[in-house]
Amino acid sequence: MYAIDPLSRNLCFTDGKEGMAFVNNKWENRCSDLSYTLAGNGSLVSGIELNRVAAIVDLGTPSDLRGRYGYDDAENGGVGFASLRLDGDKIVVLQDNSDPVKVTWQLLKEASQLAEVKSSANATIKLGHIYLVRIADSRDKSFLTTVKLMVIAYRPDEAVTLRWELL
How far, in Å, CA of 102 to CA of 52, rounded? Predict the structure, then answer.
């Protein structure tokens, strides 16, 4: 996402494309699930569309996550991010992968913070950090999107590159 590009400062999780579009020679919102803003030294913002509310939780670095949950990670941080998943309506993270036949999971404690949705939820951008984003709709109770993302490149005041996946 690019801070000064009105088209690509927003991201749509539905199709992975820019959140804005040119329509009849003007800017229009197409699907802005996540935005990159320069406010607060660079922030990710969600819950910005009409009727949308969101929560963003910073889980820290892959090493932070591994330290809190104690799983083995021979992939230099890749295991924790990859293992974050929905199990029913709960978010879980790897617990033990020492036996490839019997992998076990544990509840991600920080996921409880996703219940506190609000308009314009934001989090400071930190290189290498993993985030969870939950987006709901205040009018359409059936709408719910949960995403995990990791900041894999960041040039303050210019661009942020994310690895992300819908849960």
Answer: 39
pLDDT band at 137 (very low <50, low <70, confident <90, very high): very high
CA–CA separation, 100 and 109 (whole Å)? 24
Structure tokens at 43: 């922030």
CA angle (144, 148, 149) in 5-degree steps? 130
Q: What single letter denotes the amino acid at residue 9?
A: R
This prediction's pTM: 0.93
Question: To which residue do tokens 């709709």 refer?
Answer: 137
Instruction: Check: CB of residue 167 under 8 Å from CB of residue 91.
Output: yes
What stretches of the chain show up as alpha helix (H) in DSSP?
A: 62-69, 78-83
**Model pLDDT for residues 73-122, shown as the tens digit of each residue:** 877 778 889 999 999 999 999 998 777 788 899 999 999 999 999 999 99
